[in-house]
Every structure is written in C-alpha cells, then in structure tokens.
Amino acid sequence: MSFDYDLFVIGAGSGGVRAARMSAGYGARVGVAEEFRVGGTCVIRGCVPKKLFVYASHYAELFEEAAGFGWRVGAPEFNWPTLLANKDAEIDRLNSIYIKNLEASGVEILPHRAELVDAQTVRVDGRELSAERILIAVGATPFIPDIPGRAHAITSNEAFHLDALPPSITIVGGGYIAVEFAGIFNGLGVETTLVYRGDEILRGFDDEVRAHVHAEMVKKGVTIKTQTDIVEIAQSGNVYEVSFSDGSRAGTGLVMYATGRVPNTAGLGLENAGVKLGAGGEVPVDDHSQTNIASVYAVGDVTARAQLTPVAIREGAAFAETVYNNNPSTVDHSIIPTAVFSQPPIGTVGMTEAEARAATQAGEGVDIYAAVFRPMKHTLSGSAEKTLMKLIVCRETDKVLGLHIVGPDSGEMIQAFGVAVTMGATKAQFDATIAVHPTAAEELVTFKQPRG
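and the corresponding structure tokens:
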C-alpha cells in the first residue's frame, strides 16, 4: 500500500521534533502537524521562558548582596514590559531555529491541527493524509479544577503574557511549577502566597529537601499555606476574594493554578483509530512507545511516563532508532537527573531517603550523609540562605542510591553528578575523587561519617 508519508507526527514539541528529524535522517518521509508554534511547551511557554524569568527575579537579591562585596548601586528599577519583550524575542529566535532544523532535515511542516481519522489516516486543514505510522506527541496542558470562579484564574501559560505584574498573587499547587513561579513573582516584588492542599510542598522529592526549600522560601518572603485549598474565587473590583477550605478568606491581585498538567488528547480522534487511553487521558505505550494499535506510537508528556523535556527528547530518539534505524532502543525512566529552578534551586538524582529505606530490610541498609551550611558567597553577601547536600548510600554495596542538592548552581551540579549515579558509582569512588576547592560541591566528595 502506498502512503503519503512513512511517518506523520502530531505535535512539534521537543519529543516530536526529535523523532521527526531523526526519522527523516534515516530516510523516512515525515510530516509534522503543529497547530500553535514549533518548539512545544518547553520552548514556547514552559522551561525556557520560565528560566529567563527566574534569572530576572534573582536580580533583586543580587543588588542587595553586592553591598557586602563593596559595590554601591543606586535604587534598582524593574520594568516588566522590557522583560516580556526580550523574552518574546528569544522565543521567536528559538522557534525559527526549530523550524529551520526541521526543514533542513527534510521534514514537511503543516501549521494546522491534526486529528486521526483511523489508524493510518489524519485529517489536516480539511485534507485526509495517509501514513504508515502515526506518532502522537501533543504534550499536556495545565489543569484548573472545577470550582466556582475558576474562569478568574490563570495558569503558567498566561503568566508569561501578563500586561502588568499584580501587587499580590496566590499560587495554588505544591509541585515544581508552583514553587518555581512562587520564587519568580516573589523575586519580582509581588506579594506571593503559595497554597497547597498536602502536608508539604514538592511531593515526591526527598522529605529533607522539601522541608529545606519550604523554610528557605519563607525566609525570602513567600507565604506558604499547606493543608489548604481554594474552594471559590470571586472578583471584587480590581482584586479577587479567595475562599479557602479552612473557612478563611483573603484578597489577592491574581490567582494562578499550577496543580498539574493533563495529557492533551481531547478531540484528537484517537478513538477513531482504536487507541486506548488511561484513566487520566494519557496514551499508554510499551517500552518502544507503541500503543495498543501497531501503527500508532506516542512519546513525551502525553504518555504521562515522566513529564520532562529531556525525557521526551530521549523517547523521540529511541522511537526513531527502533523503527527507522533497526536499532531497538528503550529509555530507562528509573534514574532521571532533575533540576527544579526554585529559590533556592534543587538538583536531584536517584532515590529519596524514604524510597531507599523502603527498599532495604527495615531501612537498616542505608547510610545518610548530609550537611546544611552557609555557602562561601553568603559569608559576605549578608544572605541567610543555607545550602543542603545529601548522599544516600547502600550500606551493603556502597553504591550511591540518591544525591540531592539545594542551593546555587545545583542544576548544573546534578547534570555531572547524575552521570556518576547513573553509572552506579560508589561512596568510595566519590571519596577517591579529589575535591575542587573552594566550592560547595566538594562537600559531596568529602563526607566522612554517616549521620547517626
């Protein structure tokens, strides 16, 4: 049977673009449909603009800290429209690069929404196109619960395009997106409250890391309300009145939800192809990203395996290797180095302490090495911020099971330490590595005694 394409990709985000470019490089005829902008969530309305905002929000502290090093600067003044314009220019630049790279690889870009007609046919801009294989890479979208007044709330999507900064903001959620935006708005001078229904923010991270970040955020001026949720949002003039589950109320200039993301599968026509969906709307796949329908695959956030850009990229690459290069490849989701650009930031790889103890007999087979200290920079800066370094080691094998950092440059550190942990490095090998002095990271190779 003759097809219009060997591969048709729906969604030009990180995973879809990687799969499309590599597949075309292996000789496949590839088309990509994207209804918004090439680059996906990360580039257009996610990690890239978010990190630019994180950089911007740090300057208030940096100006204050400069005095301890002998610098005298005038009263700083922040201009939100300038940041937005410069951010938009950078996103435009990246978007054009993604387009050029796809076109240079021989991939045809169709700037329209695509829907499945059947397992080997898609409808794009009124046309039906056939493909031997279809790859679903449509990502996920922010979720706002169905409460009275939900229309008044924004998500991270809208946070990148506000006309003006509000005087105050209430952010709902306790995950990394909520925590990162709390740091951003607080750093830009917005009175910030973080509301989370659980016992502690950053569920899924090491408990000591969670408590440490919580305490440091409070030091910086963020109000954190746990075991609380919003039950109603009402507009009152230029502000919003928020009603909480504990019966209290508060006024706020803006409400932002960061309570998770749901797979973007609604209206995609997957049922026309017989593709089964999970309870949360995700697309279940096997180790090679294949759905229950042989001709349909899925990668990235839409599969809900691990909603992280580097994971989507790796899944897209493994798909291309497997299907178009005769090189069956899978992605190991068990060890994923991760950075959270909170303030202070987190770098983490491997098991949490709780996970490691649960994996051993009565938790007795784990040694914990940890230190909380004031980094060298802050001996003169005047900042009270503390750094946390933590190693979790298997007592029997000496293997480093988990490594967790909270402090400046932790994201950069964890990329390097992630290699060691992924390779199965031992505490003895960490100890044998000569320390780089003076650095914060040297703490991780100079731990002598486990914590009692």
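(Above: one complete record from the training split.) The longest strand covers residues 127-136.
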